[in-house]
Design goal:
The protein has about 475 residues and is an alpha+beta fold. The protein is about 45% helix and about 20% strand.
């Protein structure tokens, strides 16, 4: 209220040109601004510098992260590491387990695919009518259609069936039980039937037992065992996948084999008894020179920004611990052992791939050394370009993660976090000064308004006295 009155009084005085004739509002504004000018200028300059530091550190961190990510994409597509290929794609597809490397060729013959047991219940009148209540017990083991041998290492699963449950409800209860058996209601030409499907593998066959709640019969119709249940209800028998690799007999519980040879795993899709197919690994080291050239180009872009930002004359990040730590790590790149698990004579460092560092911190490729390494050990070079624990990608990925980790005080991410915190403090201090400046301005407006009023009163009195004196002087004449 007082602020409004002061503002109104000041406005009236200024508008009428009363009192001293000086614009007291503008004078108060100017004096208040002058009082805090230096502090505002210092904070503005500090805020601008912090923004530059944040921008420079973020550009370097993001640039290095992009470099590592792009390298990872290149490695994962198999453009550098040799990937296996099955000549007859109808029989299987091949892949390389993470962190492994394959070589050579193999002969593959698949005699049997893994299957899951499929069992149906009897035909019902409706999928929504109540079937009964109680529990179903699923036991696992080897099923051949005529006999069942329980595998006691696999726990039986009890599934509670609530009162009034329909076929649809029972299917939902089975699927929610975690029994490793799924169920659904099939609408067949004869009527709805409950279908049970187990996992792949010879020991994944199953039988179903039923325990009925007294007074609510019907659930026993879903029980099934060889000999006591209708043989036609067993549609498929579970079995392992059987195949030979280079004439060696192998089996797998599922059609995805896992690693069966160095750098080789299979997904079986068909059989080829009597007509083996070949699996080969392509030699992809021909792309390494171009990849290393592209890597150096991208790396030098990051180094150029790092050099500019850390320049002792005007660099935003001069003295920054995160930038200094990254620079030190980059300077050690050529000699870094990226393949500590490599054979004694195999390539182990980036310098083996021709990476050389210049005096200004930039990099170049020694093409002669790279070519000699590839010629000497092409498989060893290929092994350096995988997505495993070790290798070229792993080395750059670790550097990128380190630069982006706020858990390390000497990282770019920590520097950015610190600068952002300081920038927030500058913003808060600027707002605090703005409040103080406004308070001072209002105080000055109030004081100046009162002073102007006193000046106006004095001028009025002076004018009256002058008129009286003039009148007295006139009367004397």
């Amino acid at each position: 209220m007082e602020s409004t009155s002061n503002s109104t009084a000041s406005s009236i005085i200024t508008t009428l040109g009363a009192g001293s004739g000086v614009n007291m509002t503008q004078l108060a504004n100017d004096l208040a601004a002058a009082q805090f000018q230096q502090r505002n200028d210092r904070l503005a300059a500090k805020g601008e510098l912090l923004a530059q530091k944040i921008s420079a550190a973020s550009n370097i961190k993001n640039g290095f992260a992009t470099l590592a990510s792009s390298l990872g994409d290149l490695v994962r597509t198999g453009d550098l590491a040799p990937l296996p290929k099955v000549a007859d794609s109808a029989v299987a597809t091949a892949s390389t387990p993470l962190g492994t490397i394959g070589k050579g060729s193999y002969s593959l013959e698949v005699s049997q695919l893994a299957k899951r047991q499929v069992l149906t219940g009897p035909v019902m009148v409706s999928a929504t009518d109540p079937v009964g209540a109680g529990s179903l017990t699923v036991r696992f083991g080897k099923m051949d259609g005529a006999t069942f041998t329980e595998d006691t290492t696999q726990a039986a699963v009890d599934i509670t069936i609530d009162s009034g449950s329909s076929l649809t409800d029972i299917a939902s209860a089975i699927n929610a039980s975690g029994a490793d058996v799924s169920a659904y209601v099939a609408q067949t030409v004869d009527g709805p039937q409950l279908v049970f499907k187990g996992p792949e593998g010879e020991q994944s066959g199953f039988v179903i037992e039923a325990t009925e709640t007294p007074g609510e019969p019907g659930l026993a119709a879903l029980a099934w065992q060889p000999g006591s249940g209708a043989a036609t209800q067993l549609k498929e028998v579970s079995q392992d996948a059987l195949f030979t690799l280079d004439g060696l007999e192998m089996s797998s519980k599922t059609n995805t084999t896992g690693q069966i040879a160095p750098g080789l795993q299979l997904t079986l899709t068909g059989t080829n008894v009597g007509t083996p197919t070949n699996i080969t690994f392509a030699n992809t080291t021909g792309g390494v020179p171009e990849t290393m050239s592209d890597l150096v180009t991208a790396l030098n872009e990051v180094v150029a920004e790092l050099n500019r930002a850390t320049n002792v004359e005007g660099g935003e990040l001069r003295g920054d611990p995160g930038a200094r730590s990254l620079r030190q790590s980059l300077s050690q790149l050529p000699g870094t052992v990226v393949m500590p698990n490599a054979a004694p004579d195999a390539p182990r460092t980036l310098s083996d791939l021709g990476l050389v560092i210049n005096r200004d911190g930039t990099f170049k490729i020694d093409n002669d050394r790279l070519a000699a390494t590839i010629e000497r050990d092409a498989e060893g070079v290929a092994a350096m370009f995988t997505t495993g624990l070790y290798g070229v990608y792993s080395t750059f990925d670790k550097l990128a993660r380190s630069a982006g980790s706020t858990g390390d005080a000497n990282s770019l991410a920590s520097s950015i976090k610190r600068y952002e915190s300081q920038a927030q403090q500058v913003t808060e201090m600027t707002a605090e000064i703005a409040e103080k400046q406004e308070t001072l301005r209002l105080q000055m407006v109030s004081r100046f308004a009162k002073a102007d009023a006193r000046v106006a009163a004095s001028q009025s009195t002076l004018t009256f006295l002058k008129q009286q004196i003039d009148a007295w002087n006139s009367s004397d004449n």
